[in-house]
């Protein structure tokens, strides 16, 4: 840049015989600036005496502004001239002059003149404004935002209105860019005659999007015994959705499906958590469930009979005078049309029941658990929550009818009688229907079977022929139909006529041999005994199918099989469900004092299958194993005859 040196030197002398010394004022600017000195009333002074106040005024061309101003004093004029002519100032004694801004101005400074020549230098620079793209952020998955910029550097009252052109932005961001990515925002397009424009880029940052998990509503009420349920939130975002529960002793939740299984009554809180991922933050929400004790309502009509299948356990009182009474159906005599009922008291959830009682409305409070187990039942319950439709027959495996010979005939209860289904019948929720095998005619072989009791008067039997125990004095035959885990008892149901290959438990006099006549029997019984009719001795192991424990009869006890046991042809062994943590008893002892009334065969109740037949009520209980040690609530060991709350095997039970 071309620079000009403007030097004003004034020598003032006094003609009066004395002279006041003045020192020179030198102004230095570039081609875009001007400078003047004011001393006293002289607006264009070129010199000043020591102590004078000097006002420096600097101007700049359009589009330019003063960028700096300095003042220096040299001791002599020659030295001042040399200072301006050389770049080597090391040998010239220079004194810096302090300039003070004139208040209320933007281009005037003042200083006090020293006893030296003073040089004031000013520089100018082009007016420049900065247009910077504002730094911005965008949420993952959203479109490109509207960009903005900030303009700085205007002087005086100038503003953006004096700019020309159109502000535009360039940025490579596109929707879907991963969170954490950054993109350059480049501004351009503005123009100005007065100002140079400096464009500065900004940064666009992609932020993570927020996930959302919301339960609405979030408070629910369930009854103990309700089926598994799942309540799902509205979810948006990314990551894996998992579920946790605060009280696993009351209910459990599947971590991924959210399916809740009720175990007890109380309040629970289920939390759903969305983990988030690279582009989404995590989130969680929860809902609460109050689980209350279930109340089961049912009605017994004028017939005094109904069916019931409850989602929760039930507890029926013992005794012949109790009302109502509950039964499972475990057998059927095709000749007499009699059902064999097994009276039950502590009933697990979803057990199909036949109820006998006085006409009226009933409501039972459901306990939270039952340790009883009834695997065999010819009743089928409906716990679907709605009415279902059944047809005349059903295939046992639920598959298409590939073998009609094993079909089951369906019956529904009507006016206290089980009536064959014709075409179809509707079964309401919590009600049951009956399924019986379809039997063919059979002929009696016309002979009898000899059976010898052991020294304890017990035996097992599985005959190749049909047998009739009705008139065999002193000998009783039973099938095993249930198992009470907490009280260590088997449920026996007495039978009179049995079809071939029916596993039986026999009771009679010790070492006595009985002759049992064969008969043409068309009867079917569900049974926990397993018979051997292979024609030879078989070997059984400790367990079967991984979840059944095998027991064999020795004396008056069913003993748990250790490693293996031999079962003779025509004999039986017992299979009970294997309990968790090996809690099953080591033996099952049959006691002579059953403690329960046994209905004799001539005590029958008219109910009928269709319009025919009678209903035999036969039941008996079989104690399981030597009694485990029992303790009262004070920690004292008590006998097996103790009545009340006791603790055995880590569980509290009530003995009556």
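Q: What amino acid sequence fits the structure above?
A:
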């Amino acid at each position: 840049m071309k620079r000009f040196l403007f030097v004003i030197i004034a020598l003032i002398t006094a003609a009066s015989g004395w002279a006041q010394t003045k020192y020179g004022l030198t102004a230095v600017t570039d081609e875009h600036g001007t400078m003047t000195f004011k001393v006293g009333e002289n607006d264009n002074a070129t010199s000043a005496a020591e102590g004078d106040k000097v006002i420096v005024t600097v101007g700049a061309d359009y589009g330019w502004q003063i960028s700096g101003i300095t003042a220096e004093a040299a001791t002599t004029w020659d030295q001042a001239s040399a200072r301006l002519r050389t770049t080597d100032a090391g040998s010239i004694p220079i004194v810096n002059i302090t300039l003070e801004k004139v208040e209320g101005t933007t281009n005037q400074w003042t200083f006090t003149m020293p006893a030296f020549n003073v040089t004031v230098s000013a520089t100018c620079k082009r007016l420049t404004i900065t247009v910077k793209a504002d730094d911005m952020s965008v949420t993952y998955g959203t479109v490109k935002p509207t960009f903005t910029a900030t303009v700085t550097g205007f002087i005086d009252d100038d503003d953006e209105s004096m700019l020309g052109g159109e502000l535009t932005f360039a940025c490579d961001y596109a929707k879907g860019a991963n969170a954490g990515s950054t993109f350059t925002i480049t501004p351009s397009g503005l123009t100005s005659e007065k100002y140079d424009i400096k464009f500065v880029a900004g940064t666009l940052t992609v932020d993570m999007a927020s996930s959302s998990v919301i339960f609405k509503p979030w408070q629910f009420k369930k009854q103990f015994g309700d089926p598994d349920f799942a309540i799902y939130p509205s979810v948006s975002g990314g990551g894996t959705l998992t579920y946790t529960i605060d009280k696993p002793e009351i209910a459990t939740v599947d971590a991924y499906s959210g399916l809740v299984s009720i175990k007890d009554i109380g309040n629970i809180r289920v939390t759903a958590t969305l983990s988030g991922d690279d582009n989404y933050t995590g989130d969680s929400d929860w809902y609460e469930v109050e689980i209350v004790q279930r109340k089961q309502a049912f009605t017994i009509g004028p017939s005094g009979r109904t069916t019931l299948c409850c989602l929760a356990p039930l507890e029926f009182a013992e005794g012949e005078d109790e009302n109502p009474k509950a039964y499972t159906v475990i057998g059927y005599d095709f000749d007499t049309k009699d059902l064999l009922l097994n009276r039950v008291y502590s009933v697990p959830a979803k057990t199909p029941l036949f109820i006998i009682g006085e006409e009226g409305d009933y409501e039972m409070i459901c306990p939270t658990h039952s340790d009883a187990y009834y695997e065999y039942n010819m009743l089928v319950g409906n716990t679907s929550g709605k009415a279902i439709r059944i047809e005349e027959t059903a295939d046992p495996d639920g598959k298409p009818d590939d073998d009609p010979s094993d079909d089951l005939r369906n019956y529904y209860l009507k006016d206290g009688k089980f009536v064959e289904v014709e075409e179809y019948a509707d079964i309401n929720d919590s009600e049951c229907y009956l399924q019986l095998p379809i039997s063919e005619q059979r002929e009696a072989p016309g002979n009898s079977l000899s059976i010898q009791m052991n020294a304890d008067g017990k035996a097992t039997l599985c005959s190749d022929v049909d047998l009739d125990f009705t008139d065999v004095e002193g000998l009783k035959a039973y099938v095993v139909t249930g198992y009470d885990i907490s009280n260590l008892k088997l449920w026996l149901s007495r039978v009179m006529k049995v079809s071939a290959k029916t596993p039986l438990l026999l009771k009679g006099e010790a070492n006595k041999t009985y002759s049992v006549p064969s008969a043409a029997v068309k009867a079917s019984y569900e049974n926990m005994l397993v018979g051997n009719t292979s024609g030879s001795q078989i070997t059984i192991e400790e367990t079967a199918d991984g979840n059944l424990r095998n027991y064999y009869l020795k004396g008056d006890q069913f003993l748990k099989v250790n490693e293996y046991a031999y079962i003779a042809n025509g004999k039986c062994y017992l299979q009970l469900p294997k309990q968790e943590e090996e809690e099953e008893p080591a033996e099952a002892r049959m006691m002579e004092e059953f403690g329960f009334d046994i209905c004799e065969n001539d005590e029958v109740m008219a109910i009928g299958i269709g319009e025919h037949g009678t209903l035999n009520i036969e039941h008996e209980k079989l104690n399981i194993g030597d009694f485990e040690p029992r303790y009262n609530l004070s920690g004292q060991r008590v006998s097996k005859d103790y009545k009340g709350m006791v603790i055995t095997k880590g569980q509290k039970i009530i003995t009556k």
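Q: And what stands out in the fold?
A: The longest strand covers residues 64-74.
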